[in-house]
Specification:
- GO terms for molecular function: hydrolase activity.
- It comes from Stagnihabitans tardus.
- By secondary structure, this protein is mostly beta strands.
- The protein has a single domain, classed as 6 Propeller (Neuraminidase).
- 2% of the residues lie in helices and 39% in strands.
- The protein has a five-stranded antiparallel β-sheet, with no helix packed on it.
- Strand 4 and strand 5 form a beta hairpin.
- The radius of gyration is 19 Å and the shape is globular.
Length: 385
């Protein structure tokens, strides 16, 4: 086991939410979030209107199973411990995944997440719960009548006040099951504060998913995970996010795992992800859900690449709008083994699905999957110029 990497019993012993300063990196504070679940994945951070930091994720026994639900923990201002996990979704026959927290204009907190039968992402729906303060959430509602559209990143505001929710279509090949090789990016646009939504396709986005627009410049960039495990991809918008150019690769490798990007107060972009791709490893698996589904996982057109190790986890900085990311800091080192989603037996070793934001004091807040057993939280001092 690489130095610093924790075994499953050690992780479980530390899942108390208590903040600790790192032994050698003096600008780093960390914690493992409390959770009653065997598997915890897909963290998402947001600052709530009252100043608390919230982290949502999905948890249960294994991704795709019907006991996977959305969970939430909060870190109050000046607190030294994350709150106990609160379950926010309860569908007994669906796997509920990829939570997104967003503070809408006016301060209302929206929770978006996907809901699907088993491993069928191509049959998922988007569900929504709303809260005045991020503490008490209203009933579950379905967002539009979209089917097979997944979300992962937060909405942005368009030039006319439009709400633009990035997503991607989970497309099934003519033969076989969904495996991701035909997925394309899409934005869902609302011009009536979330009452109704229309889909706008992103051209040239085959295999580009988890679209992450980053406002604050013209043109505006958006960044993508690459289903073909080659490189992080980027597209540009010159009209405030209403339409987009094609998703082209940048100089940062990607392993078909999630990234997240934010614009810092100094204008630079900060990205967290795994700078690894299919050329660096021969590890492969049939599909994301091959442990819970029987039979042929894919058809002749299913060319997505799964199983490339999800490590190291790196913070990368760009001063040219995301064309290059020359400054990189390692956050976790390890094997990144992800040929199994099994966290109960400690088989999975990935560091993945990061979320990042910058607080009012300039500090960076990062949360991510640790071996699919826990969500780990880091607070880093503001990066030097």
């Amino acid at each position: 086991m690489p130095p610093g990497e924790l075994a499953r019993p050690q992780i479980e012993a530390r899942m108390d939410g208590v903040l600790h300063r790192h032994a050698t990196e003096t600008d780093r504070i960390e914690a493992f979030l409390p959770s009653p679940c065997v598997q915890n994945h897909a963290a998402f951070l947001a600052l709530l209107p009252g100043g608390a930091l919230a982290c949502a994720w999905f948890g249960g026994t294994m991704e795709g199973k019907s006991d996977i639900s959305i969970w939430l923990s909060r870190l109050a201002p000046c607190a030294s411990r994350w709150s106990p996990a609160e379950r926010l979704s309860h569908a007994p026959d669906r796997s509920e995944q990829n939570p997104v927290l967003w503070v809408a204009p006016g301060g209302e907190v929206w929770l978006f997440h996907t809901s699907q039968p088993g491993g069928r992402q191509d049959e998922c729906e988007i569900h929504v719960r709303r809260s005045p303060d991020g503490m008490r959430f209203g009933p579950v509602q379905r967002l539009g009548d979209f089917r097979g559209v997944f979300v992962r990143q937060p909405p942005i505001l368009g030039p006319g006040g439009e709400w633009i929710l990035p997503g991607f279509r989970c497309v099934t090949p003519p033969e076989g099951r969904w495996t991701g090789g035909l997925d394309t990016a899409v934005t869902l646009v609302s011009r009536d504060q979330g009452a109704s939504w229309a889909a706008v396709e992103v051209p040239g986005s085959l295999g580009a998913v988890h679209m992450n627009p980053v406002p604050g410049s013209v043109p505006m960039p958006a960044f993508y995970r690459d289903r073909f495990a080659q490189a992080v991809r980027r597209s540009l918008s010159t009209d405030g996010g209403l339409t987009w150019g094609p998703a082209d690769p940048v100089d940062l490798p990607n392993n078909n795992s999630s990234i997240q990007v934010v614009r810092l107060a100094d204008g630079r972009l900060a990205l967290v992800g795994n700078p690894t791709n299919a050329l660096m490893s021969d590890q492969r698996r049939a599909s994301l859900y091959d442990e819970i589904e029987e039979g042929d996982a894919g058809g002749p057109m299913g060319t997505a690449v799964w199983g490339v190790p999800r490590a190291p986890l790196v913070l990368a900085l760009s001063a040219d709008g995301g064309g290059t990311f020359p400054l990189r800091r390692s956050l976790e080192q390890g094997s990144g083994y992800c040929l199994s989603n099994n966290s109960e037996e400690g088989l999975n070793k990935e560091y993945s699905y990061p979320s990042i934001l910058q607080g009012p004091d300039g500090a960076l807040h990062i949360a991510y999957t640790y071996h699919r057993r826990a969500i780990k939280y880091l607070r880093l001092d503001a990066p030097p110029a």
